[in-house]
Design the sequence.
């Protein structure tokens, strides 16, 4: 049964998506802690079902610049996964990853891709890769489906634009989008959003393989 | 006092001559402005998908290039615009992530631009200016006073088409 509309998901299906979120973000935290060699804390992620038009508001409005890492997904399911965070967090995370001392002035004034060094962009891309990879791994283990992500792509631009491709995909089935809000970090917690957008048939395949 | 009317994703709005109309952060979506060059009545639709016919859940007309453009034209005419005076300016249709893959999900921007162009041609409305494609977001604001469409891109000066 294809999913006609996310508004019609049962509470049990939402619970499962929440659980996938928990395990996925747990995996992400472990992967980041291993990579950075520091302790990473996380909050329990929140699964949100929102009107498509309201999603950019979570990120400060459609015109506000944010950072997004996108991976296309192939294998048993098709679609895309995107991880989005505000630009100041992205700058700080890049600095933590690179071990450079946080340049506070820089982090406050960043407004676009030009404020990021090449090496910082590479670091964010790699972080997106690890985050999306460990998240997809969790889904793969739960469902037994083979999920193959592409090379990650980073874009730093207006929230509306960064969100447009996944929102368009959700737009094919209805007017709601499914997001997973995660918070993690070392001393300071950073907020980021996962948007997993399988095609309609692939969503049904995920739910079916969980016997729902 | 003049107002700036804000059009959200998958929305359509009409703007009377004393106001301006805007949409923020267009990525793969297309913002289409249609205006009456004599009465200055104008409107904008922020379309997300090219074709409503292949989508089952197509209640929101403004989401689709084909239905959205049609609805905007109808609405303009009902507000007093004259069809033969209508002109269009369009922007957006970017591909935000530069995947080389054939993943058609990520090439929807180009298809949106084509679909908007096709519908406007069908209705006999000329596209007098456009700024489409690329890999960056756009915020656009139309001023019916001088018929200029302002295009803002992160890290650049505004341009006008």
Sequence:
């Amino acid at each position: 049964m294809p999913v006609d509309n996310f508004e019609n998901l049962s509470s049990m299906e939402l619970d499962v998506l929440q659980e996938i979120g928990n395990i996925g973000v747990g995996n992400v935290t472990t992967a980041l802690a291993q990579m950075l060699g520091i302790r990473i804390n996380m909050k329990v992620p929140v699964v949100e079902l929102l009107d498509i038009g309201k999603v950019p508001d979570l990120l400060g409005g459609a015109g506000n610049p944010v950072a997004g890492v996108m991976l296309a997904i192939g294998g048993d399911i098709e679609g895309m996964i995107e991880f989005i965070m505000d630009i100041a967090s992205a700058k700080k995370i890049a600095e933590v990853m690179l071990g450079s001392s946080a340049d506070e002035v820089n982090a406050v004034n960043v407004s676009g891709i030009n404020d990021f060094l090449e090496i910082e962009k590479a670091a964010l891309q790699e972080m997106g890769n690890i985050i999306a990879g460990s998240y997809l791994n969790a889904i793969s283990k739960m469902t037994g489906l083979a999920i193959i992500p592409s090379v990650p792509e980073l874009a730093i631009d207006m929230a509306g634009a960064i969100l447009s491709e996944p929102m368009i995909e959700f737009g094919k089935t209805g007017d709601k989008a499914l997001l997973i809000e995660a918070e993690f970090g070392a001393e300071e917690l950073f907020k980021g959003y996962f948007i997993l957008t399988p095609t309609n048939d692939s969503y049904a395949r995920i739910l079916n393989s969980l016997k729902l | 006092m003049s107002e700036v009317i804000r059009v959200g994703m998958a929305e359509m709005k009409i703007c009377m001559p004393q106001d301006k109309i805007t949409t923020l952060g267009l990525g793969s979506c297309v913002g289409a402005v249609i205006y009456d060059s004599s009465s200055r009545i104008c409107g904008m639709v922020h379309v997300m998908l090219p074709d409503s016919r292949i989508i089952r859940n197509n209640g929101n007309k403004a989401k689709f290039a084909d239905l959205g453009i049609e609805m905007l034209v109808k609405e303009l005419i009902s507000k007093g615009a004259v069809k033969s005076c209508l002109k269009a300016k369009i922007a957006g249709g970017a591909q935000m992530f530069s995947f080389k893959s054939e993943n058609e999900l990520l090439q929807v921007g180009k298809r949106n631009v084509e679909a908007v162009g096709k519908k406007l041609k069908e209705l006999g409305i000329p596209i007098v200016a456009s700024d489409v494609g690329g890999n960056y977001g756009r915020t656009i604001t139309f001023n019916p006073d001088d018929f200029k469409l302002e295009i803002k891109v992160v890290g650049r000066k505004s341009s006008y088409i």
